[in-house]
Structure formats: C-alpha cells, structure tokens
Amino acid sequence: MEGIHIETAQHIQIKQRPASLGDRVLAYMLDSFILVIYVVLVAITAFAILKMEDGSVALFTFIALPFLLYHLLFEVFMNGQTPGKYALNIRVVKIDGSKASITDYLIRWLLRPIDLTISSGGVAVLSILLGGKGQRLGDMAAGTTVISLKQTLVRGEDLLVKVASTHEPKYPQVVNLTDVQIRQIKEIRAEALQTQDFGLLKRLAEKTGEMLQISYETKSLEFINQVILDYEYFAQKEHGEG
C-alpha cells in the first residue's frame, strides 16, 4: 500500500503509510512466539515449585491473565506497540494520525477473537486487503489503523493543501508567516506524525503559537492543522484561487 490520505476535522489531507500485511503478520508471529515461550517457562517453573493439586488454579490464573491481556497491556503502555510491532517498526494510531486512547485499544482487543482467533486470521487479512486503509474489524470499530514508522522522504506534493473557498479562517495572524516558515511547519508535522513523536508535535504547536502570538486551547495537531489551513486560504485568496 502506497499510503492513505485521511481528512482531518479541519479538512486537511494527511498521508499515512499503512503497515504492510507482511509486517503485521511477522509482528503477530513474533508476539505469538513470545507468548509460547512465556507459557512454557512459567509452566515448567510452577510445576517444579508447586504440587499440581495445590497450585493448579493459581498456575492457570498466572498463565492465562498475561496471555489474554498481552496485546492490550503492551499497546496501552508502549504507545500502540507490542514487542512484535516494535521489532517491525509499526504502531497502532488513530486514523487521523493522532495517538490512540485506552478505549481504542480496548475495542481492538475485544474484537481480536473475531479478527484473528476464530477465523485463524482470515477475517483480519480480508479486512486489511479489501478495506484500503490497513484496518481489520477491530480497527474499523475503534477508528484506528496500523502504520509503518519506517522513514520515507516527504515529497513536495505531499505538503500541498487545497482549501475550499467557503473556509472561515480562525487565525488571521498566519499572514505574517513566510512560505519558508509554513513549509517547515508542514515538514515537521509530517515527521512528527510519521514517527508518532507527539512531544515534537507539541513543541511545534507551542513555537508556532509564540511566533504568531496566539493562545490556543485545542490539541497540538488540531492547532497546527488550523494554522496551515488558514495560511493556505489566505495564500490562495491572494493569488485569486478557489
């Protein structure tokens, strides 16, 4: 998949590169291997220490809970990644490129049996291949996708934004930005979304707000998107476009 173009609430097109099916399968296999090793090691250790009649329930619980919660817990505490996803450099994110919430991870996890276990992965594979946005059923329900974090060059055409003539700008101060500055803002935003560096996105928003002397209350990504949209609106209006 070359990439998916997602339209944000501010009507800005953001290009995300979905993780390939091969990378997702390899990540799944690696996570499964880790789980098998865990079960074997815990079982051997427990049987050596506990008598079966005394510790069978405790042993089952000790093995089952981490096994069942593996993907959910890792994605929550590793920002959308499991060890397998980390190794393959892929991550779960919201469809607009923002960070997924605990609720999103929970929805994906609850639908995991339908996607992967019951159908032996058939439902997930079909959803990913046919959906066009790299989403299995759990992703569709949660509004998430799995993207590749592998570095790619940002092309000039990927930074272009077409704004509707009916757009109502929120920050007229953007006219004080230069073409070079707005391009740098776009490039840094693209880099932050590609690497899921939300700290960089926050710093970009803060710096942009300082330059424009704007106090914003929205999320960093929403603010940056609005600034870009407003700038392009005024630029197109100046050149008689739209």
TrEMBL record:
GO terms for cellular component: membrane. The keyword Ribosomal protein does not apply. The keyword Ribonucleoprotein does not apply. InterPro entries: RDD (IPR010432). It is found in: Membrane. Keywords: Membrane, Transmembrane, Transmembrane helix. Residues 19-143 form the RDD domain. It is a multi-pass membrane protein. The chain crosses the membrane at residues 25-50, 57-74, 109-130. PANTHER family: SLR0254 PROTEIN. This is RDD domain-containing protein. It comes from Mariniradius saccharolyticus AK6.
